[in-house]
C-alpha cells in the first residue's frame, strides 16, 4: 500500500515528520512535559496504525517535544476526569494506554527507537522499554517517582524496568524514587547508549539509516524472534526459531537469503560481518 492510499488523520497531541524513510513521532504536549493523556493515547494508536501501512516510513523514532520525552501519565486527565464514569469506560481508558505503550510497540512491524531527549518519568518507562532500541541525552532525567506519590509503578512500568535493568538497580530506584541521568540509564542498560544532547538526534539518525539498509522482512522477523524466545527454554526456542527462519525465507519478497548466499559462495562479492549483501 502506498502512502497515497493511507487515510491520514489530524493530530493534536502527537506529531509525525517523515524524512527519507524515518518517521519521527513526537509526543507533542510540551506545556505538560508531554504527559500522556487519554487523547494522546488514542492518537498514538491511530498514528502507529497509519505508519504501519506507509511505504515511505521504514524506521520509527519516538521522542518528545521541548525539553521532555514524557513526564508519564497525566494524572489529572487520566484519573480525575474519569471519576464517576462507569467501570467499562474507565477500563477502556486504561486499555488505550497499554494498547500502544507495549502491546503495539513490543512487536511493531517496523523498527522502533526511543530517543529520550529530556524528562522521562513513571509511565514513560513502558514505551521506552517496548521500543526495540533506546538512546538518551546525557542530560536527560529519569525517575520512578511513584513511591513519592504513595502509589506503586503500575501500568506495566515495573514489568518494563524488570525487563532491562538488574534487580538491584530497579529496586533501588523503585524504592527510593530518586532521579538519575542518561549516563546512569546507559550504565544500567535502560538505554543502549547516552550521548550529549547536542549529538543525540544525529546519533539516532545514524542508527536509523543503518537499519534502513537492511532487508525489512528479515529485520522485522529477527527482532520478533528475539522477543518471543527470550523467555523460552532452549529446546522450545530452537524449534520456534527454525520455524520462523523458514517462514521468513518463504515470505521475503527480496529473497535475501538466496542473494546473500550466492554473493558469498558464488560471486565472492560479499563477506558476512563486513556489511550487508547487495540489495537491488
Automatic annotation (TrEMBL):
GO terms for molecular function: lyase activity. Its EC number is 4.1.2.41, 4.2.1.101. Keywords: Lyase. The keyword Lyase applies. Residues 247-280 are annotated as: Disordered. The keyword Lyase applies. CDD domains: crotonase-like (cd06558). Belongs to the enoyl-CoA hydratase/isomerase family. Pfam families: ECH_1. GO terms for biological process: isoprenoid catabolic process. The lineage of its organism: Bacteria, Pseudomonadati, Pseudomonadota, Alphaproteobacteria, Sphingomonadales. This is p-hydroxycinnamoyl CoA hydratase/lyase. InterPro entries: ClpP/crotonase-like_dom_sf, Enoyl-CoA_hyd/isom_CS, Enoyl-CoA_hydra/iso, Enoyl-CoA_Hydratase/Isomerase. PROSITE patterns: ENOYL_COA_HYDRATASE.
Amino acid at each position: 500500500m502506498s502512502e497515497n492510499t493511507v487515510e491520514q488523520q489530524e493530530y493534536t497531541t502527537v506529531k509525525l515528520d517523515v524524512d527519507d524513510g524515518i518517521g519521527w513521532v513526537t509526543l507533542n504536549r510540551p506545556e505538560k512535559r508531554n504527559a500522556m493523556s487519554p487523547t494522546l493515547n488514542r492518537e498514538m494508536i491511530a498514528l502507529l496504525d497509519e505508519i504501519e501501512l506507509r511505504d515511505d516510513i521504514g524506521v520509527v523514532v519516538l521522542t518528545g517535544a521541548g525539553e521532555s520525552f514524557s513526564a508519564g501519565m497525566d494524572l489529572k486527565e487520566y484519573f480525575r476526569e474519569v471519576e464517576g464514569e462507569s467501570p467499562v469506560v474507565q477500563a477502556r481508558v486504561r486499555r488505550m494506554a497499554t494498547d500502544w505503550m507495549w502491546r503495539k510497540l513490543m512487536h511493531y512491524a517496523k523498527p522502533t527507537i526511543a530517543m529520550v531527549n529530556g524528562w522521562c518519568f513513571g509511565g514513560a518507562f513502558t514505551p521506552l522499554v517496548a521500543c526495540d532500541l533506546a538512546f538518551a541525552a546525557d542530560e536527560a532525567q529519569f525517575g520512578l517517582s511513584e513511591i513519592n506519590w504513595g502509589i506503586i509503578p503500575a501500568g506495566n512500568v515495573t514489568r518494563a524496568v524488570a525487563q532491562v535493568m538488574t534487580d538491584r538497580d530497579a529496586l533501588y530506584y523503585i524504592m527510593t524514587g530518586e532521579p538519575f541521568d542518561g549516563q546512569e540509564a546507559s550504565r544500567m542498560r535502560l538505554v543502549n547508549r547516552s550521548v550529549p544532547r547536542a549529538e543525540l538526534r544525529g546519533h539516532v539518525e545514524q542508527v536509523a539509516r543503518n537499519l534502513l539498509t537492511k532487508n525489512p522482512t528479515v529485520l522485522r522477523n529477527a527482532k520478533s524472534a528475539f522477543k518471543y524466545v527470550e523467555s523460552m527454554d532452549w529446546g522450545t526456542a530452537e524449534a520456534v526459531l527454525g520455524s520462523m527462519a523458514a517462514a521468513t525465507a518463504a515470505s521475503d519478497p527480496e529473497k535475501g537469503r538466496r542473494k546473500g548466499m550466492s554473493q558469498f559462495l558464488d560471486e565472492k562479492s560479499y563477506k558476512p560481518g563486513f556489511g550487508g549483501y547487495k540489495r537491488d
